[in-house]
Amino acid sequence: MGKRIQSMIFLLAGLVLLGAMNTASAADESAGASVADSVESMKKKVIELNRDLFILEEDLLFPASTQFTVFLSLNAGEFLKLDSVKLKVDDDIVAAHLYTERQAKALQRGGMQRLYIGNLKTGPHEVTAFIEGMGPDNRAYKQAATLMMDKGTDVAALEIRIQDESSRYQPSVNIVEWE
Amino acid sequence: MSRPVSLSFLKKTMWQGAALATALLAASPVVADDDLPERAQDLRYGAILYDYYQGKSFDALTRMAVAEHEGGIKGHGDHPLLVKGGLMLAYGMSREARSLFEQLLTEDIPASTRSQAWFYLGKVFYLEGDNANAFDALNRVDPEAWEDEEEPLTAEWHYLKGQLALRAGTAKALKAVTNDIESLSDAPLWQAYLRYNLAAFELDQGTADGGQNAGILGLERLSEDLAGVDSETIADLEENADDPESRDELALKREQLALRERTLLSLGQVYQQQGDTDLALARLAEISLTSAFSDEALYRYSVAASEAQSWGLALQALNTLQERPLFTPWLQQVPYARGFVFEQLDQQKSALQAYRAAANHYQSLLDTLVQSRQSLTEAGILAALRFDADGSSTEVGALSPALQAFATEDGITADAYGRLDVQPDDFNLALLLSSEKFQLALRDLHALYQLGNKMTRWQRQLQSFEVMLETRAEQRRVKIDKTETVLASLGADEWHQQQATFNAEIEAADQAGDAAFFMSDEQKAFAERIRKVESTLAALPNDDSTAAQRDKISRIKAYFEWQVSNQYAVNRWAAQKQLRELNQSMAAFREKNRMLVREMGSNDRNAALAERVSVSQQRIASLDADLDSALNAAREALIGQVSGEIARQESEVKRYLLAARHAQARLSDLLFQSGATATPEAPASGEAQP
Asked: Are A151 and A84 contained in the same domain?
């Protein structure tokens, strides 16, 4: 009996070992490497192409003299769970965004979202950001911030800055103009 | 024999566990999860980090390339280069990442950056299996130089060093592993994996130097230390899965449970090999029936029970296995093994029936495999896989549903080295899917489809740019026509003539000292009045009154001429001033006119933009051709791998089939000789009770 059991174990173990064997040939390996190399090379070219298209698009659609961009940063977490933002420029809502958990986390870790890019003529403009989310004690939180700005002939960039204010136990929202 | 736990190992054995192990080893390559937020000093860098932290490597790399094109990122030192290296790794560009880190290390950089660069370079070498260079690079890391936010890297550094030491396998290296394990006291999961791998290594070293015992002891201790995690703990955490902190805790506990079950399985295997079936059965019985390792555990349990001649237990384990879909190597052996156990129970008829069923099963499986291999397509392979995705997708072309999903899904999640999160729907692919080579082939194929999607999108975008530029050119033409009409209506030539006439007259009058020419309007009116009076007086009769009037007007005229002469310089200056102003205005007009003519004649800006659009279209066309050939190669590589895997399975099943038929023939012959019929004695399940 013991011998037959051993033979069964041997047979099955043999089959299992066979199952674990890799049947790939050297030719397969080199083909795999070749595809990987060409993919990596293509990726490099595609990134360069995308960079040029990105710049072309901006040159075409948003010339420097009228370009206007708005970024959003979040240096908060304790007093605000960000849900959404709306951006108003001179009485027009030009951008709105609902945040996924992943996006909110990316902001919390130091990322900045380019919320809006557009064109704005020179002169004075009013920019308002409306922020919504969950504040302390799971209470709905809404706040707006406004900035009066004078658009010149260079690129204008603003940052909607949301940050915790420990002294007031709530977040604050400011719009900051970048030089 | 137990093997070291690694990414590929866990993928081979447990999909859920594999995902967690992947997340562990391949945690965001440059900035750890609990990294403190740092305010970006450069808006472009902030936007790069936003994409980076969301795993959008391609977008982040593009933004990085744009920032570099525009003069680089300001205010963050060399950190952006480290991020770029991490992005390249995540986007599957390991060669580029390696050369970037190597380049970075030739520069004069802060100690913290240098240490990180060595760490990531070492990690690239480690993943490429280049142990010597990985060892060298990791030994150059100075964790003391790391900033606080880089602290989480220390655990991974110790783990990688430990793994490399195990690969080296020398006594000195093993001592270093022990030190690394001690250093991982604040990172229990890293420590547990390294402990397991050390124990597995010691078991592999055999009994000559007591390694076998040390290995068993290591596994037993690890199993005890991980015993606090059970299914109930996990179920509690699953109830609070909405909370991000609970989710992280849940992931950790699942990983710990999976490692404990893997440890128990290894112990069961070792005890079984040592002939200690009681301990083997006890350890294997601790593994949950819902565990990802339960198939192998049940199979090993049945073998251990057979060795202990507990045929009922063996049959019960095999019956449990038989109720599961046949997709792992362990389950494929069950039909034959059941026949064998019945035979050992001296139930010849049941054994014969089980062997017959096994033969039928293997024949049917063989037919299916042959058919699968002959009709193998890319779409068929992809339909057999299930990809984890974040829900974002784009529509392209008319493809089969599986291919459509694979090709258009932008949001298939991947680890920090670009490997896709995928599970097998057809478990014939399970073993293959666990291999690094297949994972990389899938990654490359998906990357190529993604590149194709991007190029299609860019082609559309460039077409719209073309339309935009053509429209602008047309609008420009209309504007030029209008401008030309307006210029013509202004009679610009007449203005030039008048200006020339004024210049000539004023110059002549100036040279002639013609005071009358420079008279003011008031003076001219006065002169006219004098002339009219003189004319009237000339027509009157010559009497005293008229003479008196004529004297008076003569005096007035003399005074007037004296006044004009007296104001000549003032009047001439006023006239010349006006002439200068006219000349300036005319010069400005001529300049504007010249500019308009030049602008109307040339279209430089639009032409430059149109040229850039055209060049981009050519680049896309060229890349498109490269993409087609790369896609074909990737498809062939993938199909080749799957075809090879199915052929391997065919060969395996053929052996099972042969063994089952052989046993069937042997038993039929035996029963025929003993005069018994081939009907079973009793239901097999009834006799399977332990």
From this structure: yes
